[in-house]
Structure formats: structure tokens, C-alpha cells
Here is the input.
Amino acid sequence: MTIDVRRGRGSSEHDGSGRGLARDGFTLLELVVVIIVLGLLAGIVAPQIIGRLSDAKSTTARTQIELLSVALDAYRLDNGSYPTTDQGLGALRERPTRAPVPANWRGPYLRKDVPLDPWGRAYLYRAPGERNRGAFDLESLGRDGKSGGEGEDADVR
Here is the structure.
């Protein structure tokens, strides 16, 4: 007697020799082989997909930094300087009330709120910058949230 997996019942058709005429189900050995093959494929493919996800987050951070930089440049064109560190990136959405209050603010310079980096933290903004003394520094500290690092933990500027 064989177990019919699709029908959920036993099949007892015989040809007189004690063997079944038709085999409608899978044996346990066949199911185990399929599970092993799927596991091996997942083990090979999963690391490549995870690596792509890390690259995608870093690329997203670079793209967002570029877009924020364009908005900061538009702010500077209107007001003669970049927002101060204290005013922050929020000055791109709402007119700053902290000194120096911009006289020609024509914002908002972003359509939506300032985004968080792909790891869920605020971008670090400094103006004037430590690296770019005449402009600003804008960066994400990567997955680990610490300065430095490699791979997905690397800073994105």
C-alpha cells in the first residue's frame, strides 16, 4: 500500500504480484532529497543576496546625500551661506528662527521631510565643515553608527 500525498488516502490497486499498479505519491526519500537540494541552493544564493542588500543601502545613502547637497546649494544661492550646524538640515524644510535668520529664504528646498539614512539614523551635518571648510560636511556613519569601518559599516560622505 502506498500513501497518496495529493489525495490523502491509501491506494491498494495491485497487479496480483503484491506490487501497486500506479504510484501517485512521493516517498520519504524523494522528499528528503528535494529538501536537501533546496537547502543547498539557499546556502549558495542567500549570501549573494545579502551582499547586494548592503550595497543597496550604501548606494541609497550616497544618493540621498547628493540630493540633500543640491538642496543645500539652492539654500546657499538664496541666502548667501549654508545653514549653520545649529540650524541643521531642518532649515531646508522650514525657515530657521535661530541666528543668522536668512533674509531671502525661499523654501522649502525639499518636497518631503529630511530623510533618515538607510540604517534609520539622522545624517550628520556640519557647517562650516571640518573637511570642507568653505562649505559643509554631510555624512552617514553606516550600519554600525560609528566613525570609520569597512563594508556596510563604512562611513558614507
In short: Strands lie at 2-4, 9-11, 124-126, 137-139. The chain has one domain: 2-153.
